[in-house]
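User: Before I run my own analysis I want an independent prediction to cross-check against. Here's the chain; please return only the structure tokens and, at the end, one sentence I can use as a sanity check.
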Amino acid sequence: MKNKSKQNTRILITGANGGMGLETTKILFDKGYGSILMACRTKEKAQQAKHKILLNAESNNTADTLETYGGFDMNDPLAIEEAVATLPSQHKIDVVFLQSGGVIFGKEFKYINWNGLTIEKTIFQNVIGGYIVLQNLKRRNLLSENYRVIFAGGEGARGIPGMIDKPTFHSPKVLEDYIKGNLKGQKYHDMNAMGTSKLMSALLVAKLAKNAEDGQEYIWFTPGLTYGTNGLATKPAFERWFLENIGFTMMKWVGMAQSPVQAAQKYVSAIEGIRGENGDILGSPEKKTLGPTVDQKSMNSAFTDQGLIDEFYAIIQEVYPEKEIVQQN
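Assistant: Structure tokens:
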């Protein structure tokens, strides 16, 4: 991928209609990339986002550069399968940016039931849904020989003092019980659950990177805490207003949060191969929400705990076993 021209590079972005997904798509479009697949929950949302980008375009790229697709619902494996089946097969995808998902606000855990299993919803929609997208791209042989996959991370995976507790699991069994809802007396905390889901995506990247063939790359990268995304969409109206207009504004002033555009610029550097190599877990410095990109592995021992890595991958295989490649016509 790194040796390809921009015009010949094909990029798929999940959740390309809002927040960092939209801003990342805008930047790539203005930089002149040849094909950008906007993989959204609905076709309508993808088309609306495309219209916004074209209205404010700063490049000579054509409308055909932006391809719009619906059905990429990260909580619905069947919808994802059908959505990937609609993608054209004549041109391979070089980069996959998996950044759909969000926080599940509330006072109790929520779960997705699939394949006879009960799985914590934040993990399903932030990690497993993206994995299912990736597996279907592989199954339909839609990835180029040397592809690059970027998983959107988050500093919550190693904890943010005063905001998100460091997610820790003392054994693979405790991890399994958490994901499957078997922990007794476990209290739900929405931001802690989000941090845990980001840790799970890092564990998945560790496994996929280890199994990658030469030229294939899996990178976990967080650009730092970002305001103005769609993450607060399900918050009660007053709480959302307060966080967006008071909380994040104060964090911006003290250098603890950034705009979606600033975050997207960093994601573009990861997509282009400027940041990150296979297996990297990258983000802000320890105890900070913004700052230079550094290795996160020393900040939470769970990142490199092989027992946890293997256990999470085993659970994913229970939820969605790998399937044989289907040759496209």
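Sanity check: The first strand starts at residue 10 and ends at 14.
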